[in-house]
Specification:
Largest sheet: 6 strands, antiparallel
Shape: globular
Strand content: 15-25%
Radius of gyration: 13 Å
Structural class: alpha+beta
Order of helices and strands: EHEEHEEHHE
Strand order of the largest sheet: 2-3-1-4-5-6
């Protein structure tokens, strides 16, 4: 996450960089309507996939930077539930991260909301 950003980072993880970027742009289009500050956070050119992300995924990761909010959470949950094979990584400003798949989103439709609200036992790991 860029050092000057104080909001949240939602990353789309995929082995196919083009599909990751397409999915991130689709999610950004939905989020842009409720969070006009949301923007793409693309990997640096020439940076090896996953470089600098100690313990991070080896797949292409395309991020979205946003300020978050309850409606944003609802959009993320809805989008993710439609794409069961996709994995998102949500990172809070405090560095805590949540890895969630579309299947998990369908099984627990409040997981992202609880994580962003930081209400305790939400399956997070410090990042």
């Amino acid at each position: 996450m860029p050092e000057n950003h104080t909001g949240y980072l939602i990353s789309v993880v995929d082995d196919d960089p083009l599909r990751a970027r397409k999915d991130a742009r689709e999610l950004l289009a939905a989020l842009g309507e409720v969070d006009p500050t949301a923007k793409l956070d693309l990997p640096e050119p020439g940076r090896p996939t996953g470089a600098g992300d100690k313990g991070g995924p080896s797949a292409e990761t395309v991020g979205l930077l946003l300020s978050a909010g309850s409606f944003v959470v609802a959009l993320v949950q809805t989008w993710l539930a439609r794409v069961p094979q996709r994995t998102l990584v949500v990172k809070r400003p405090d560095g805590a991260t949540l890895h969630i798949t579309g299947k998990e989103a369908r099984e627990d439709d409040t997981l992202v909301q609880r994580f962003l609200a930081d209400d305790g036992d939400d399956g997070t790991t410090a990042g």
